[in-house]
Amino acid sequence: MDRPRIGRIERISTDFEKIRSNSPNPPNPRSIPFPIIMSTIRSDVQKKAQSALIQYAVFRWENAVILGMALILTVLFPQPFAWWPRFGWLLLGALGVGAIVYSSLTDAETNAKVLLTLFQQQFDPRAIKDKELRAEVESALEYQRRIEAEIRQQREGMIRDRLERTANQMTEWIASIYALAQQLDAYRQDDLIRREREALPGEIQRLSRQRKQETAPQVQARLDEVIASKGKHWQSIRALDARMKEAALRLDQTTTALATVYSQVQLIDAQSVGSGHAERLQADIQEEVARLNDLVESLREVYGEQIED
């Protein structure tokens, strides 16, 4: 392991210490691809959700049943009463469809479910092969759905505006959780590192026994170099394993924090908005996202170089 690698691993350890100690000066997030203006991503998802919601509201199976029954009744019983208009059944069916469409468009839970479906396409849990990590992502998306439902239950005004800003930050948080889960999943699915982890200790022992039995100075020197190289590689794998274990604990911790934020969002009302509670909540989310982003980038550096070796 060269000095730059050692320096990076030591820096990762320092970052973890800052995270665990809740330092008031957390490491600054680097410029990485995934968190680019998450509020824009949420806005795009919302636009798609509006179109998807309209399609869902119009093409519900209940509408098909209502229109089908209206057509059948129009053919079989066009005028069941003398005062009944000829197209009365069709008019009644149209009113029923209109009521279902309206209720679908205004229902907070339905809106949230449509958004969740689109977020799942953006941050697809099925792409995570590890069951434990996939469950963490699904849990995070469920909290996102519930927060979206809370927002849609609020009337237009200051409280909803604050919740909208919080939801934008939540989208960035979900993206950070997803990126961390992807990094951990790639590590856990890495057969090469798994084979090296299993083989290196035995190889080092075998070479060490060979070194003791060797008498030729040149061969001894070459064996010393090989043993030292494999020893450094073994240490780097152990360091990577330790970092990934800590990252997995961090993922579980941040999902728990997401649940706490959800409970706090439920408590936001006009009085708490005036007291600055919403601003403190947004600041806490931003700090959490910054730490996660820095952690993910650090893991990418160490894990990426480990693969290159």
Structure description:
By secondary structure, the chain is mainly α. The protein has two domains: 37-106, no CATH class; 126-309, no CATH class. It is 82% helix and 0% strand. It has helices at 3-20, 38-58, 61-76, 88-106, 108-122, 131-152, 158-188, 191-213, 217-266, 270-275, 277-308.
> Order of SSEs, N→C?
HHHHHHHHHHH
Mean pLDDT across all residues, rounded? 76
Total strands: the figure is 0
Q: Structurally, how many domains make up the residues? A: 2
Question: Structural class per helix/strand content?
Answer: mainly alpha
Unreliable segments of 5+ consecutive residues: 1-39
Helix content: over 70%
End-to-end separation: 9 Å
Summarize the structure in short.
The chain has 309 residues and is mostly helical. The protein contains 11 helices and no strands.
SSE arrangement:
Blueprint: H1 3-20, H2 38-58, H3 61-76, H4 88-106, H5 108-122, H6 131-152, H7 158-188, H8 191-213, H9 217-266, H10 270-275, H11 277-308
Helix pairs in contact: 1-9, 1-11, 2-4, 2-5, 2-7, 3-4, 5-6, 6-7, 6-9, 7-9, 7-11, 8-9, 9-11
